[in-house]
Prior knowledge:
- The chain is an alpha+beta fold.
- The protein has a single domain (3-82), classed as ORF SCO4226, nickel-binding ferredoxin-like monomer (Alpha-Beta Plaits).
- 33% of the residues lie in helices and 30% in strands.
- It has 2 helices and 4 strands; from the N terminus they run E-H-E-E-H-E.
- A 4-stranded antiparallel β-sheet has the order 2-3-1-4, covered by helices on one side.
- It is globular.
Amino acid sequence: MPMFLVKRELPGITPDGIHGAGLRVKSCAAEMQKEGSDVHWLRSFFLPEAEQTHCYFEGPDEAAIRDLNERAQIPFIEISPVVEMTPDSV
């Protein structure tokens, strides 16, 4: 399944704000899955000094990932397709 990176700039975000955003994404992904959309939030990384998050998702296409993030009402600056590489895959 295709993977995507969602980049966010979140100036002034607090730990509680990060947690709340994660709960919204998790809830919206579950809702979309019940509707038949195969979207999954994989993980996110918070870069405190840059006030950014990099969030990784699987889904059928960019439109589904955009819909998920818009439903969760979390701002983003970019959605990009990515290819996963791990030590075991090389």
